[in-house]
Amino acid sequence: MSKPRKEIHLAAHFPGVNNTTVWSDPEAGSHIEFESFRHFAQTAERAKFDFLFLAEGLRLREQGGQIYDLDVVGRPDTFAVLAALSGVTERLGLAGTINSTFNEPFEVARQFATLDHLSAGRAAWNVVTSWDAFTGENFRRGGFLAEADRYARAERFMRAAWTLFDSWRGDEIVADKASGQFLATPRPGQFTVKDDHFDITGHFPVPRSPQGRPVIFQAGDSDEGREFAAATADAIFSRHGTLEAGQAFYADVKGRLARYGRTPESLKVLPAATFVLGDTDADAREKAAIVRRQQVSGQTAIKLLEQVWNRDLSSYDPDGPLPEVDPQVSADHIARGRASVRMNRDPLAVAKQWRELAVAKGLSIRDLMIEVSARQTFVGSPSTVAQSIDDLVQADASDGFILVPHITPGGLDAFADTVVPLLQERGAFRTEYRGSTLREHLGLSAAR
Fold it and tell me: Residues 382-401: pLDDT tens digits?
């Protein structure tokens, strides 16, 4: 018996401040003006996407004691942007990244419950933790938590928020003296949370929202992160977008669900994906090569190399060879607030690997940085990209993709106009929304 055909889930990630965004293109626009957010969101909704996704950075990144040159356009508040977008969209889900290390459950629960009401059931929360003291300096608590402690706090934070969301009682029947009728009135209930991380009690001020609880996203890739997702998340934001890596990740996280009494359908796996479209596959490959060089300028190449070498390399020629000097291994790092620093935990091994690659392919510093950092998941004509997406989803490498265009705000337009209709013709993607809430878009059951 053949396996039932899966329906693809698609979402759009508003490009943040990073070196994947092409700033030099004449079509590039603002990352903070509301018109950019409106255009992007309405394009995603026109294409019948599940949701729009906003990342968040809690501190501007630094390198060599100066603000990183790709981090100066501003980072507006997530809730303010999503609340505004709820007024110019009708069905599109609204997903925001909110940190569990430095925030408090009461405040975050109140904000998400409010957003879910304002949007009529379209709110989602990407729960993240913070790993560095540099970010913590913006907050009264300061400092940072060890990885295991971060996820322990995140799980307690999540369950505290759930307690608040669920604290309102079911409708209470009350007699209305004026009309003589009996009316159903929701009533706030008492909540109490006491554990190693939180000690709060009171009455939650926001009634139970249309979804009951927002859809929960998680993006951690460590073993602790995967386990946290299996226990608590509705969807996981993955970085494994290729067939073999995607299938391995998919099988791993789905295989953890049974121990929490969950079915494979209760957790959606959605890798981030970039794309470059052309009239033909050859045309798209030519465009992709141009985009990669736009994404990694000579200046950016040196900055990226410094994040591994942990040295000032500004005197080096980006079109020249890699430095002969080895990376400097130190707890005090030249780049602060950059996830790539954390991911390159063995800089000497990375340097050795990169040197071998540069020699084998005759790569300059800039060429190497393009090779190792600039990736496009889908490159081809609309028909090629549509087939690639469908093949990966049907092969259980993912349940869909969160698309990250390299141009803001119009980078999603061509995908919506050319690839989406082909996926719809295949019967792999909806032609109309069948529900009004994000849970319905994702095929998730009501919040427990």
Answer: 999 999 999 999 999 999 99
